[in-house]
Write a structure and sequence with these properties.
mainly beta; Immunoglobulin-like; 7% helix; Ig-like_fold; Big_12
């Protein structure tokens, strides 16, 4: 039967799939490995494969295993699979003895059990039977060969080596990561991804991805939102690691990443209000005209930033002067006379769009009652009469 992929049911240790460009992708449990992919196991590792219609297969450590399309071949031609009897007379005799129920070892040299001692020239006159033992490894059935590396290219199945056409190189899927100006992140895959979720995404520099969803019309496109940490200024990288997803047939995908500069650090601001009038008291004359309220700003506040002055719930707007340090606004004395404090705030915004507002307030007194006064004139000339002498003096 035709075979497209095999399922990895168990992984112990470290194993890899070699991709078309020679790079290696880690093998994970549940991954589907496509036909003609090469599985490589390191020392102490093993990989168990589930093959449709066939028993499971285990690849032991230090192996390089090529997944063949015919490892699940079940309709083998019985004629081709039949073993022909050997033509060697000695082998034929042994087979005949076995079929007849005889012991083929009864034909061994009779001196095998006789010891006559050495002759004049020394030596022995008996036949030695040396046990031939070859240990096998349960997983790989490898024969020990001291000093010889055990890494081999293995192809299972009915491959005859007669030059059958091989499939093209394994081309893994890939992804393009794009951090957009509005804070969203777009993940565009070359093939529909399998096994991709928010836990696969790495964010360095701080922050996280939220709301990861595929596009309803294009399942190769996924979108999430980058949530940076508060009060942060610097670079953030969003990365999809190699091998964190596969395509439909189980080929591990190549990763991708994008980096952006993030500024969530707000500017600093301060504002102060000067004394309301020179003496901090609104008098009757001042209450009947406009009073100029002044003040200063500092830190990151800049020329043109908006200043709002509030008196009794009414707002009066102005901006920071070109010197970037002072401001002023006229307020009707009729409003000031009915209140006892002035409130002011300034709002500034940095290049990244972060805003900060600083506030201040200044109390004052009101006195619009004129002082009382009186004057008297004493008696003129002592008798209220100016005589000739007094007129000439």
């Amino acid at each position: 039967m035709a075979l497209d992929t095999v399922l990895v049911t168990r992984v112990e240790g470290t194993a890899w799939i070699r991709t078309a460009d020679g790079s290696k992708v880690a093998v994970k449990e549940g991954m589907r490995v496509p036909v003609n992919a090469e599985i490589i196991t390191e020392t102490g590792a093993s990989v168990e494969l589930e093959i449709p219609g066939s028993p499971s297969m285990t690849i032991s450590d230090n192996r390089s295993f090529l997944v063949s399309g015919d490892i699940a071949e079940t309709d083998v031609d019985p004629v081709a699979a039949a073993l022909a009897n050997p033509n060697d007379p000695a082998i034929t005799a042994v087979l005949a003895a076995l079929e007849a129920g005889d012991d083929p070892f009864s034909q061994l040299d009779p001196t095998a059990a006789v010891l006559t001692g050495g002759g004049e020239g020394g030596g022995s006159s008996f036949t030695r039977l040396v046990s031939i033992v070859e240990t096998t490894r349960p997983l790989a059935l490898e024969y020990p060969r001291p000093g010889v590396p055990t890494v081999e290219n293995v192809r299972l199945g009915g491959y005859s080596g007669t030059g059958e056409e091989e499939a093209g190189p394994l081309v893994p899927p890939s992804v393009t990561v794009k951090i957009n100006d509005d804070g969203t992140v777009t993940f565009t895959f070359t093939e529909v991804p399998f096994g991709f979720d928010i836990e696969d995404i790495e964010v360095t520099g701080g922050g996280r991805i939220e709301g990861l969803t595929p596009d309803n019309k294009d399942p190769k496109t996924w979108t999430g939102t980058l949530v940076p940490p508060p009060n942060y200024e610097g670079e953030i990288t969003v990365k999809v690691p190699d091998g964190s997803y596969t395509n439909e047939v189980g080929t591990p995908g190549n990763g991708g990443e994008d980096t952006t500069t993030v500024d969530t650090l707000p500017p600093e601001a301060e504002i102060t209000i000067d004394s309301i009038t020179e003496d901090g008291v609104i008098n009757k004359e001042e209450s009947e005209g406009d009073v100029t309220i002044t003040g200063t700003v500092g830190k990151d506040v800049k020329p043109g930033d908006k200043v709002t002055v509030t008196v009794g719930g009414k707002e009066y707007e102005t901006t920071v002067n070109p010197d970037g340090k002072t401001w002023s606004v006229d307020v009707p004395g009729s409003e000031l006379v009915n209140n006892d404090k002035v409130e002011a705030k300034v709002t500034t915004t940095d290049d990244a769009g972060n805003t900060t507002t600083a506030t201040d307030e200044k109390p004052y007194d009101v006195d619009v009652t004129p002082p009382e006064a009186e004057i008297t004139i004493d008696v003129i000339a002592g008798d209220d009469v100016v005589n000739k002498e007094e007129s000439e003096g």
